[in-house]
Amino acid sequence: MVVSNRCWALLALVASIATVAQASTIRDVLAYRAGDGPQPTDISKLTAEIIVNDGYPVEEHQVTTADGYVLTMFRIPGGPGNPAREGKNVAFIQHGLLCSSADWVILGPGKALAYMLVDAGYDVWLGNARGNTNSRRHIFHDPDARNTDFWDFSWHEIGYFDLPAMIDYALQYTGQTSLQYAGHSQGTTSFFIMTSLRPEYNERIRSMHALAPVAFMSNLRSPFVRAFAPFVDQIDWLMRMLGVNEFLPSSDMMTLGGQMLCQDEARFQEVCANVLFLIGGFNSPQLNRTMLPAILANTPAGASVNQLVHYAQGYNSGRFRQFDYGLTLNLIRYGSIRPPDYPLNRVTAPVALHYGDNDWLAAVSDVRQLHSSIRNPIGLFRVSDPDWNHLDFTWGIDADSLLYRRVISFMDRYN
Asked: What is the pLDDT of residues 345-395, one digit of tens each?
């Protein structure tokens, strides 16, 4: 697909304007949830409200990273058939790019991974990376200020700072020394950063379950990424010049749009579905259209532009390596003109790689390359549906039977 620089500049400008427009509404939503403002018109439920409505207890915990980001985690210590008690095995689950902890409860009791883990006897912790709906705070920086340093991060910092902070907090709070980990997409990328650059964390992981693992990206098929990747430097420059560093923030506008355009009987419902398919792969039978308004109320949850830029750099280079700041800054930061590769040979935690044949963002060949690069793989595990795509790992109708039961079974073996 060939797109001119001028065309991409125009598309980036339109995206920037839309982002700024959304940013003006997210403040109202967050202010209301903090008790500092009136309720906006018809906002949808976020993670904690979903969990309470589903009949499970929930706790909200905050932890501050070493570089000053205040992250929110949600804990589900028990459930209707498995009450909270001390000494339970801990399971920590981390969401993907542009998503939030809501992914793990949105399918509902008996279907969502978080609830299935609780019902299986686990003390479940749901992480939220910096910059998403639940983690938009810093001890110094304002995420809504123009030219703020708040958004100066990619998924490198999520792996290096966020995951260690959240894991340490969960272990200290529960009195455990290690836990089970499951992550989707970026939740796997950040895990491999943590365990390769801070290898002491390998000892705190009993087993890791990588759902749609993303590290190497040379063979991805998503037209979205393949189209903008060749122009990533120009887009990054333009967004910085415009002072827009947040990509697709969550907002009341997205919620209302999802409810009006994507609900049952809406003419645009199939358009909503096909937008998701163009990102992660087509698998129409696995998408519950009735859930689209709830999905779009929580996704996109906000991210730094640098997170997308970093993935595009990985596609262009064919390497799993640190952020490329350009020749001069690379020399200053890394002492070399190119960023260093992540040392995956230092990942020693037991890792199970779960993949789908029709995943347009985590190609089977790239997952196999990752499998051969880590030292202690549990194995490669294919989801049996030949059309299983990238988003089915969190929203698929049959995710419980085709994937989650297997994940829990493996976790049980490693306790």
From this structure: 999 999 999 999 999 999 999 999 999 999 999 999 999 999 999 999 999
Catalytic residue among 101, 135, 178, 185: 185
Report yes or no: 287 and 276 within 8 Å, Cβ to Cβ.
yes
Instruction: Give 338-346 contacts, CB < 8 A, sequence gap 24+.
Output: 342/192, 342/193, 342/196, 342/197, 342/215, 343/196, 343/197, 344/192, 344/196, 344/215, 344/320, 344/370, 344/373, 344/374, 345/373, 345/374, 345/375, 346/195, 346/196, 346/197, 346/199, 346/202, 346/375
Name the nearest CA neighbour of 99 among 132, 143, 127: 132
Q: Is 264 exposed, middle or buried (0-12, 13-18, 19+ CB in 10 A)?
A: exposed
User: How far is it, in rounded angstroms, from Cα 18 to Cα 176?
Assistant: 45
What pLDDT shows up at residue 71? 97
Assess contact for 70 and 62: CB atoms under 8 A: yes
Say which CATH topology domain 43-410 has. Rossmann fold (3.40.50)
- The single residue of 54, 119, 359, 392 carrying the catalytic annotation is 359
Q: Is 262 helix (H, G, I), strand (E, B) or coil?
A: helix
> 142 an active-site residue?
no
Residue type, 171: L
Q: Is 359 a catalytic residue?
A: yes
* DSSP for residue 212: S
Mark out the alpha helices in 132-215 (DSSP H runs): 155-157, 163-174, 186-197
What are φ and ψ of residue 76, in 5° steps?
Answer: -115, 95
89 closest CA partner among 201, 173, 176, 183: 176
- Assessment of whether the complete model's pTM goes beyond 0.90: no
Residue 185 is a catalytic residue: yes
Compute the distance between CA of residue 199 and CA of residue 245 in angstroms, rounded to an integer. 31
Of residues 156, 184, 209, 390, which has the active-site annotation?
Answer: 390
Q: Where are the domains of the chain?
A: 43-410
Mean pLDDT (whole number) for 113-119: 98
Each residue of 124-154: pLDDT tens digit? 999 999 999 899 999 999 998 877 899 999 9
Q: For 216, how many CA atoms within 13 A lie in the half-sphere containing its CB?
A: 18
Query: Token pair of 82, please?
Result: 């498995």
